[in-house]
What does this fold into?
Amino acid sequence: MSATILHAEAGASDEARATGKSAGRRFATLVVRLGAIAAFAAIMAYFVVFAPGFTSTFNLINVVEQSAILGVLAYGMTSVIIGGGSDVTEGGIDLSIAANMGLCAAVYATLLSMGYGDFLSVLAAITVGMAVGALNALAVVGLGILPLLATLAVLNVAAGMELTLTQNTVVGASSPLLAFLVSGSFLGISALAWALIVFSATIIAIIHGTAFGLRLYAVGGHPEAARAAGLSVPFYVSFTYVLSGFCAAVASILTVSRLSASTPGSGELLLSVLAAALLGTVFSRRFVPTMGGTLLSVLFIGLLANGFQLLNVSSYWVNGVQGALILLVVAITSFARGSESSR
It folds into this structure.
């Protein structure tokens, strides 16, 4: 009987230690998360005080306009992370999205320069973007290659095709659609800013307001349970990569409108896209990617770059800060996963 009592006491002691460890990890996660949000707030407060014109209406609208391209790309990346899971090494990711945008921009600008109208040029850009997304889906879902490696390979394919098409030169473009995106406005808000607003509302409604979006979260968070419930996991994962390609195509039209041309070097946006998509998890209650969180992180990155510019700080610092933010978010999500698994 005494052995039974000792065994029960040992079991209770182990359970108490496990409970204490889980509580400690959850507390550490909360501290890190609140610390991150406090740091963001402190940075914004600093810009409000020391950056001239930071809070002016004109400047804030300008930030939204400048964030349109990053926002559309970040939504594509977020959808892939939602559908494929947020594990950094094996989960969903699309490293080719920025290069895909560059290829779509080259196709769009080249067709315009050849005399084709907006309709055909836009259609071609969207087709190319979704085709690259389908190639990613084939590599990840069909061939079973890790998303990190598959999309890295497709990145090089898209970048090579862009350079082949443009011969590494700037391709100028002009059209009624581009003129509208550059100079059009409604209620004092530019067409580019409206593009981000409308696109954000649409994708948030689809992902967070429909049964399809709920199933997408189920596939990314618990693929085995989703498969047991009768959901086609390959279809949903493939859909996210094609959607990411569509977002790249839309962003390509926006970037051509801003620059009046297709220019090499679109791949440099990848770090910003990753930072925006991953940073969005900080604004989520359960540390999962959300479209609303991505929108907040996109605006934060836009305000960060804008604040540095107003303070005459080199833009190179923005890349360093974005890299630090990615490390921070990975640390936070690792804490969160550890807390969930220890329950």
Notes: The chain has a mean pLDDT of 82. The domain at 2-341 is CATH 1.10.3470 (ABC transporter involved in vitamin B12 uptake, BtuC). Strands lie at 171-172, 185-186, 189-190, 261-262.
